Each structure stands twice: as structure tokens, then as C-alpha cells.
Amino acid sequence: MRLLTPGPVALAEPIRLAQSQEMIYHRGPEIKALISNIVSRLKSDFNCENVFLVTGSGTAGLEMAFASLTKPTDRALVLTNGVFGDKLGQMARIYCNAQVEKLPLGKGWSLERAKEIIDASGAEVFAMVYNETSTGVLNDAKGICQYAKGKGMFTILDAISAWAAAPLDLKEFGVDFAATGSQKALGAAPGIAIVACNEEAVKRADGISPRTFYLDIKKYKKEAENSQTPYTPAVSVLFSVKAALDYIDSRGGLGAHRLRHQQAAEKAREFVKSIGYEVFAEPGFYSPTITGFLLENADEIRKRLREEYKLVTARDFGELQGRFFRICHIGNFDDEHLEASFDAIRKVLGK
To answer: pTM (2 decimals)?
Structure first.
């Protein structure tokens, strides 16, 4: 089977083999060296003071922000334009007084569209999704978070399917807290949430009673000072995270890795047009990792691709369920993989 999914993604051989190495003690010098290696590299790319490795999905990383860094009385503004933005809003409503503002599916959040809402909200906390995986829309996280930060808001960014494919400099973007997952554009195995945050975020925690035991950011900060995690990490997944960073470096580094994603997205959009469909995302908001289009018999096409070509493609969600198709160019793909996938899709569609 070949994966054309948004995560978990197919593992390059060095990354896959890294997980099979001998287990190490999670409190010994070996794990400290491993965590230190990973964290120092991630801090450099995110341009931030803190990176925490949380065993769990990317959602666990996002929940850390709300459970550790907000109060029940806090007002939070969440912008959404898809399923994962909706989930972020649902999470915010569990922990604080959240206002959720929606755009139609396929539309992207720009500063022009968000500015008036931010001005009128009076919120202390701002949150949004950078790359809406369900529709293939990349929002203007930089412009919007910069503006929200300038208004004095604490900014939380869901970068789960964006980081390592799209730029994300926390200082430049005005982001206080961001989370991603090991199994997305990084191209490692699933099981580690990567949290990147500034010193303002961890200082904010000092004045807040956490509503979580496992995701208490103060515990992660304390243990990180000694290159440790507060609880047993998914060690084998950490092996794969380091291997993924090494693999990316061997191919030119994260800059080249992001460029490959952008180029693949362009090819995917050209392919969609060549078979007679329109890219669903609004022009100017194209995702570097997901290209989607409306396809009324999408479930049947997915089934045939799996059975006839051993190609596993991603399901769709919500309002678009059963009539939306996503081409996922994320992680460890190459041109050969994409071309073979395009060929299979073309044949099944009779195009």
C-alpha cells in the first residue's frame, strides 16, 4: 500500500529503520542526548525559547495551551473555516469563554477579513488554524497573529499540518504558542506533539491554576531544563523524529523541504485542472500540503484506488463528506510517488 494521506505519512527508509534500534532508558543519558538534539534543532527553526515534546497527537499539544494557559473567565476568539478550526473552537469552549467566527468552506482568513472581528471581540486569547487540512486552505496566520498580538492578545496557532511545509517563525508571526505533530510534514511516525512557545507563554502559566495533570506546561518547562519529559515519552517515535530531521538535512534542510512542498502543491493544482476539476481552495490561500476538489462519488473512487492500485487516500469530513477528494503532498513524498498517484487517479476517473 502507498499512502497519499495527510498523516500519518509514508516513512522514508532511514526514518522507518530508526524506530527498530535498541530501546533506551527514559531517564538515562541517552534520552537526554536525544531530546537535546531534537529540541535544539526545533527551537532554531521555530525561532522560539521553548520546545516541548509531548507524547500524544498534535491535539494534545493544542490542549496544553488551553488547559494550562487560560482561565475559565478568559474570553477567546477562534477563527474557523473548516473541520479542524471547528475542533479548535470546541476545545476553546471547554476551557474558556470562546467566540467562534466562521468563513464558508474553501475561503481563507486574511487580515482584511479578520481585523474588524478582532477589534470588536475584546478577547484576551486568540486562536486559529494555519493550514485547514479538511479543505486545503492556508490561512494568513502571519498577518492575523501579528495583528492580534499587537492588540495585546495571547496567540495560539494550530500548525499541525502546516509546520515544516509552510514558514513559521514565532517571533516574526507574533505567535506565543504553536503545536504540530510528528506524523505530518516532518515525516516521522505518529505519537509526538511538538509544542513551540515563547517565554511569555510559560510565564503566563505561573498565574494560572492548570486544569490538567498530564498537560501542565510548568512540568514540561521544569523537565526541559534537564532535557527530559515529565512522563515516559514514546521513545521509538523520538528516534524517528531525529531520523526525520536528519533525513531532511541530508536533502538540503528545512528550507529545501518547504520548497518541495510548494512545488508539489503547484503540480497537484495543475493535475486537478488537467482532469477537468477546480481546486476547492480560494486563490491566494492554497495549501502547501493538501489540494482538494469536489468529487460527488469520492467514496467509490477512494475504494477503487485502494483495491485496484493499492493507493490509500484520505477520507473527507463534515458538510463535504462523500463528495470531496484530497490529494496530500506532505512529508516524505517524491516526484515518482506523486506521478504514480496522479496516474492512478486519472485512470480510475477515466480522465
So the answer is: 0.97
